[in-house]
Amino acid sequence: MAAKNFTVVTEFILLGLTDNTELKVVLFVLFLVIYAITLVGNLGMMIFLIQVTPKLCTLMYFFLSCLSSVNACYSSVIAPKLLISFLVVRQTISFSACIVQHLFFGVFITIEGFLLSMMAYDYYVAIVNPLLYAAAMSKRKSVGLVTGSLIGGMINSLTHTISFGRLSFCRSNVISHFFCDVPPLLKLSCSDTSMNELLLLTSSGVIAMATFLIVIISYTFIVVAILRIRSAAGRQKAFFTCASHLTTVTIFYSTLSFNYIQPSSQYSVEQEKVVSVFYTLVIPMLNPLIYSLRNKEVKAAVRRAIEIKHWSC
């Protein structure tokens, strides 16, 4: 039997979002602004304000500052490479760099899911059992939960990365995407990817369903507790306390489930790219805006910071 000739892939070509030169310029400016807002909003406004404002130094805002850190991190894993793709004719990424990008993105996106479920539980304890809040959500327990989410994110991402690293790529090296995401990479492999697809569906599905279930159960009790509040002002305050988080959860899980939980045959590559833009770049930008616009304490802290800056000039 004659041996088959093939070339082992050592680098990939990322097609990016578009090959239209004029549109690339527009998208470069757009995503540069989005990335700048993401960094300023998450690192500057949320983390800095929470650390320097005594009134915001609570466990609720501790989780929010952790969420802001994660948003800035996983956006930074994707955005720089995407911005470069708008400036060059052909965007390439080595196999090892692709592995690293996939690893870190998987870590941060998993941590975000864990943090959102923790914040839902935090709201549940604060609204449903306020007298037990100090005991149930101590600083030590909260730090332990965040540390656990970090470990869980690393284990989940390492599992997928090791599984992905064992695949052989000897066909096309052209990825119809703007970063090294799992679904488009599996389509390029010349190895049997059935186990990878099963692992992606089960592992990501179990984590997504478990964290989402915590959110649903927490908010079921929260809604019941809010409806029992007699004063309209009290109900409104409790509702607005949770509205920002509920908005973030809805956007996060709806976009993420589109790419990772349903079979890839049910959506096109272009649809996958658009949805990926939302959970990699748009959501990290929106989170600080959502929390600051709907939170009176954060808005008050922003105004004080602006006033201090104004008087110091």
From TrEMBL:
Keyword Cytoplasm belongs to the record: no
Keywords: G-protein coupled receptor, Membrane, Receptor, Transducer, Transmembrane, Transmembrane helix
Gene3D superfamilies hit by this protein: Rhodopsin 7-helix transmembrane proteins (1.20.1070.10)
Gene symbol of the encoding locus: LOC104980760
Pfam families xref list: 7tm_4
Residue ranges constituting the G-protein coupled receptors family 1 profile domain according to the UniProt record: 41-291
Origin: domain of life: Eukaryota
Keyword field contains Cytoplasm: no
Gene Ontology cellular component list: membrane
Molecular-function annotations in GO: G protein-coupled receptor activity; olfactory receptor activity
Organism, scientific name: Bison bison bison
Protein name: Olfactory receptor 1052
InterPro entries: GPCR_Rhodpsn, GPCR_Rhodpsn_7TM, Olfact_rcpt
Biological function: Putative odorant or sperm cell receptor.
Compartments where found: Membrane
Entry's transmembrane regions: 25-49, 61-79, 99-121, 142-162, 205-227, 239-262, 274-293
Topology term for the membrane: Multi-pass membrane protein
